[in-house]
Fold this sequence. Notes:
The protein has five helices and 14 strands. It is of the alpha/beta class.
Amino acid sequence: MAEPDADARRAGVRRAPPPFKPVEVRAVEPVTPRLTRVTLTGPDLEGYDGRDPAASARLLLPEHRSGQLVMVQWNGNEFLLPDGRRPAIRTFTPLTFDAASRSLDLEIVLHGAGRASDWARAAEPGAPAALSGPGRGYKIDADAPAFFLAGDETALPAIGQLLGRLPAGTPVEVHIEIGAADARTALDTHPSASVAWHDSAPDEPPGSALVSAVRVAEIVDGARIWAAGEAAAMQRIRRHLFEEREIARPLTTVRGYWKHGRAGDNGGGGGD
Length: 272
Ligand SMILES: Cc1cc2nc3c(=O)[nH]c(=O)nc-3n(C[C@H](O)[C@H](O)[C@H](O)COP(=O)(O)OP(=O)(O)OC[C@H]3O[C@@H](n4cnc5c(N)ncnc54)[C@H](O)[C@@H]3O)c2cc1C
C-alpha cells in the first residue's frame, strides 16, 4: 500500500505543517534599540521546550489595519486567509520557553519598514498573534574540535542561544555584522568564545562585511560552521566555504534568514 505522503505528493498536495496556535503578547522589552524581546503566551503552546537551539517558530501576525487575528487555513500547498489572501507570516528563533506560564520569547529586529518589525515596535500586552512550530534546530556535535558562528542581526538571537549550549571547553569564534554600534548585545554566555563585531558597509549589499570577515578568518580544521543572515550573503559564504576552502558540506549549516528587497516569509508566501 502506498504511503499517505507519497499519495499526497502525487496529488500535488504538501503535508500540512504544524497548525497555528493562538497566543497573545505577555510582555515587550527592548534588548537593544534595534532588537525587541516579545514574550508570547497561549494555553496550547507546547513543544517549545527541550528542543535544539537555533530552531524556527512561524509567527502569524494580526491584520494590519484592525489589529485582529484572522486564523489561516492550509489549502494543501500554503496557508491562506479565509478570503484567499496571503497572510503575514514571518519566521523567528524560539528562545526561552517557560512551561509554567506557557510563554515563549522571540527577539525581533527593528530593521525599518516590515510587517513584523512594525508590529514588534508597537506591540502591547494582550495583542493577538499565532505561532506554529517549532521547526528543526541545530544538532550540536559535542566532539567537534571548534565552532565557527557567523551572522547578521537576525542571527543574534540564535547565536546567543547557541553560545549558551555549545560545550564550554570547545573554542568558538563568532563574527556578527551589525548596522549600528547599539545593536551589540552581551554575548557572554560561553567561556571559550571570541566575538568580533563588523559594521555594515553602507554602500554595499547587506552581509558584505560578514562575507569579508569569513573570507579572511582562520577556521580550525574540522570546525563546525553555522551561519545565518541575508540570503545572497549566505550564498556567497557557501560558495567560499565549499569552492575556495573545500570544506566538507556536512560540517556546515548556512541558512538564508531573509532576502534583501523582498518582503515575506523566507519559506515563501508574501503577506500583506
Ligand atoms: C529560521 C529563521 C530564524 C529567524 N530568526 C530571526 C530572529 O530571531 N529575529 C529576527 O529579527 N529575524 C529572524 N529571522 C529573519 C526574519 O524572518 C526576517 O527578517 C523577516 O523578513 C522580517 O519580517 P518583516 O515583516 O519585519 O520584514 P518583511 O516584510 O519581510 O520585509 C520588508 C523589507 O525589509 C527587508 N528586511 C527584512 N528583514 C530585514 C532585516 N533584518 N534587516 C534589514 N532589512 C530587512 C526585506 O528585504 C524587505 O525589503 C529568521 C528567519 C529564519 C528563516
